[in-house]
Design goal:
By secondary structure, the protein is mainly alpha-helical. The protein has helices spanning 3-23, 30-41, 50-59, 64-101, 104-117, 120-127, 132-142, 146-171, 175-203. It contains 9 helices and no strands. The longest helix has 38 residues, at 64-101. 35% of the residues are buried.
C-alpha cells in the first residue's frame, strides 16, 4: 500500500476515534470514560483527554472543575503506569511502541532531554501539547526519581486541565474557539517562562 493511502487510512482511524471519544459526553458514563481516557492517553492512546473534558465542561459548566480534577487524577495514574512500563517492560514493548505509539527519533530526543535537564522536563510535557505518553515511558526507562516524577506530573496535568475548565466556565460558547486558537501557545509560553525562571535561580 502506498504512503498517501496509508496516511489517509490512519487519519480516518484517528477521526473515528475522536468522534467515538466525543460520543461519551452524551452518555451517563461521561466521567468514568474521561478518567479511563486520561489514563490510557498517558501511555498509548492517541486522542488527548482535553477533547472529552471540553465537551463535558461545556455541557455542565458548573461542574467543569470537578471534571478537571477527575481528568488530572486519571492522567497522573496513567503516567505512573507508563513509568512502570518503561521501568520494567521496555525491552518487551519497545518494538510495538516504536511501531504504533511514537517514533524512535522522538523517544531518543526525550531521553536526551532527561539526561540534560532531569525531572524538570516532566512538568513541561504534562502541561503543554507535547505528547505526554513519550515522557512517561521514557521516564521509566531513564529511571527518574519517582516522587519527583509524580509531583511534576500532578502539577502539570492539573494546571493544564484546570486551565481548560476555567476557560470553559469563563467564556462558555467562545471557549472551544479560544482553546483551539490560543491554548497550545499559552501553555508553551507559560512553560518557557517557568523554565527560564528556574534556570535563573540556578545561575544566581
Amino acid at each position: 500500500m502506498n504512503e498517501p493511502a496509508t496516511t489517509a487510512i490512519r487519519r480516518n482511524f484517528v477521526r473515528h476515534l475522536y468522534d467515538w471519544v466525543l460520543g461519551w459526553a452524551d452518555t451517563p458514563y461521561g466521567v468514568p470514560a474521561l478518567v479511563v481516557l486520561a489514563f490510557v492517553e498517558s501511555s498509548f492512546f492517541p486522542i488527548p483527554p482535553d477533547v472529552l473534558l471540553i465537551a463535558l465542561a461545556m455541557s455542565a459548566p458548573t461542574r467543569a472543575f470537578k471534571f478537571a480534577g477527575w481528568c488530572a487524577l486519571g492522567s497522573v495514574l496513567g503516567g505512573m503506569a507508563g513509568y512502570a512500563i518503561g521501568y520494567t517492560a521496555w525491552v518487551a514493548v519497545e518494538p510495538y511502541a516504536f511501531g504504533y505509539v511514537f517514533s524512535a527519533e522522538k523517544f531518543e530526543k526525550v531521553m536526551g532531554w532527561y539526561r540534560d535537564y532531569g525531572e524538570m522536563i516532566v512538568f513541561g510535557a504534562a502541561f503543554t501539547p507535547i505528547p505526554y505518553k513519550i515522557f512517561t515511558i521514557a521516564a521509566g526507562v531513564a529511571k527518574l526519581n519517582v516522587p519527583v516524577f509524580v509531583v511534576a506530573s500532578l502539577v502539570g496535568r492539573a494546571a493544564r486541565f484546570f486551565l481548560v475548565a476555567w476557560i470553559v466556565r469563563r467564556y462558555r460558547e467562545q471557549a472551544k474557539a479560544l482553546i483551539d486558537r490560543y491554548f497550545n501557545l499559552l501553555t508553551i509560553a507559560a512553560t518557557l517562562l517557568l523554565v527560564a525562571g528556574f534556570l535563573m535561580l540556578k545561575v544566581l
